[in-house]
Every structure is written in structure tokens, then in C-alpha cells.
Amino acid sequence: MLERIRSITASPAAHLIAYFLILTAVITVVGVMVPWFKQVLVPTVGPVATLPGVTDAMGGGTGVSRTVADTAVLGLLALVGALAFAIPVVWIYTVIMRQHGYDMAFVRLLATLPVVVAGVVQIVRGDLALAFALAGIVAAVRFRTTVKDLQDATFAFAVIGIGLATGTGSFTLAGAIGAVFTLLAYILFRFNVGNAQPSLELSHPGVQLAEALVPGETHQAVIVGDEEIASPVRVDELPRIAESINRLAEVVRADAMRQNKRYNTLLLAYTAEPEAARKQIEGILDDTSSRWVHVDEISRNGGDIIALEYVLRLKKKANVQEMLDRLCCGNGGVLRAVELKPIKGLRRKLT
Predict the structure, then answer these.
(1) pLDDT band at 180 (very low <50, low <70, confident <90, very high)
(2) Does the reported pTM lie above 0.70?
(3) For residues 179 and 186, what is the distance between their CA atoms, to the nearest angstrom?
């Protein structure tokens, strides 16, 4: 029971709810202690509103001084409010996208965009001429950033909505947008809505081992050496192959949590001398790969041949043909054959 409670309280949903409850409590306390603050919790239209009590609290003043004080207070509240309500949106975006990786510049954009929008709304509010001038400036700048993912566009629209709401003086609406959007985004992510669960079961023989281990990748496996040794999977091998598929899937899922330098290639090395073959292969992988891991050893041809399974991240300057030449497949060497296949398709399918 304690473990269950601890897991619930440690979930992102619990953190979001706690954040908005604390924010609501702070706003409520300020509203009770500062009477004029209640006016910024509802939307207003037109020029900057007059807030009775602001200038009185600041030492009095009339006319221009009162307008300046009201403008300064409303502007500061709009900017701070935009940031406060955008913080959970930015955080939940990093939680949702950490498996696929995200652009740091876009995360910073999500954090600063609502503040800028709120400030711009404060500038042009109630002034048609300024609104048209701003449209002309934006058209002249010509923002050319392309959003690669529709989900990124949704998050961008959300923070823009928060900026517009706080800029027009509606803190209540800004809080509702932030709370509902972040919780909805996390629920869709948590329950994997809209994503069919991939089937990694190999129900039929006759495919190459690399094709069986990495389904969904359009690129065909490259086979070097004795192709008869790298023979298609037989019926009696299906149970063992199923175990290897699941083991590789676990490695790929864990690797997907990294933001960069993920594994991108599967290497299968067929040999009758696994110990000697591992020493030869791993020395070459140290030179040609930035990261690699030995995943499994798969028995082939009744146990006479072992397929050593590796996943690796090739260096950018690595020459694949030179690496294959160094492996010396066939011709009486330790390695009889080698298969290479990309695993990006498998990672997309799993995550």
C-alpha cells in the first residue's frame, strides 16, 4: 500500500495537481489580502482598467500618475502570471517528449512565448492603430520556423492562449487553460491514446534473422559472408527467436530515453567460436562505434552456429565497408557471416 501511494504521489499528474493547487491557494490569499487584485481574475476589454487602491497603496496620485501606476501593476501581473501558468506546460512537454527527444530551443520558446504575447497584448490593447502596426511588423520579420510535430504546434498554441488570457487580465481563464491542457496531455500520453500496441511476435518462419528482430524497418538487412550460414528462421527456432525479440525490444525502449546518440544499427555475427569472435568484434566496435552493447547469443543450425547480437551507434566518420572488411567474414575466418540492419523503425514502433 505504501509503495502504491508513493508511486502515485511521484507521478507527473500528482505534481501537476499539487502545482495548480498551490498556485490557486496563493492567488486566493493575495485576493483576500489585496482587494483590488480580485479585478485581475476576470477578463476585461478595452484600455487599461483603473484599479482602486493601487495608487493609494503606493502613496496616492491622480490623473497621469494613477494611469501609469495601474498600467505598471497590470503589466507586471500579466507577465508574471503568463510565466507561472506556462511553467507546467513546459514541464509536461519535456516529460511527454523525452522518449523521442526534443529541441532545447523549442522548450525555451514555450517558456518565453506566453510572456511576450502577454506583453504585446498589453501594448496593443484597445488601440486599433497599434494592432495594425504590430501586424505589419510581424509580416516584415517573417518567422520561418517550421513545427515538425503536430503535438509541438498544440503546445505552442496552448502557451499562446495562456499569454493572451493573462494579457487581457483573465487569470482565471489562463489557469483553466494551463490546468486542463497539461492534465489532458499527460493522460493521453500515459494511456498511449491513439497508438496501436505493436506486435513483435514472429508467427511464421522464412524471414532473415535481422528482419525478425527488427520489424517495421524499410531498409533491408545487409549480409556479408556465407549467406547459407545466415539462413532464414525455421519453425523450430520460433520460440527462441521470440525471446530474443523481446530482449532487444527492452534494450531499445531503455535507449529511447536518451536525448541523443541513440543506438541506430543491429549487428548479427555468425560464428562457431563465440568467445574468439566476441574479442574480434568488440575490438572493432570500440574503434567504429561511439556506443555499443552485446544483447544476446542466438543458437542457429541446431547449435552449431551462434549469432552474436549487438546494437551500436556508428560514429559519424565510420566507414561501414572498412568495418566489414576488418571483420573478415568467411574465407575460413572466425566469423562466417555478418548482418547489419538499422533499428530506427523498431524504436518508432516501440515508442
Answers:
(1) very high
(2) no
(3) 11
Closest CA to 338 of 350, 346, 330, 348: 330
The grid coordinates of residue 302 equal: 541446431
What is the C-alpha to C-alpha distance for residues 263 and 24, in angstroms, rounded to an integer?
A: 44
Please, which residues have CB within 8 angstroms of residue 159's CB and are 6 or more apart in sequence? 86, 89, 90, 110, 113, 114, 117
Q: What is the DSSP string of 245-308?
A: HHHHHHHHHHHTTSSSS---EEEEEEES-HHHHHHHHHHHHHHHEEEEEEEEEEEEGGGTEEEE
Q: What angle do CA 99, 105, 109 make, to 5 degrees?
A: 105
CB-based contacts of 152: which residues, under 8 Å, 6+ apart?
106
Q: Is 42 a residue whose pLDDT tops 70?
A: no
Report the pLDDT averaged over residues 149-159. 88
The more confidently predicted of residues 190 and 194 is 190
- Domains, the chain, in order of start with CATH, read 2-190 (no CATH), 209-350 (3.30.70.260)
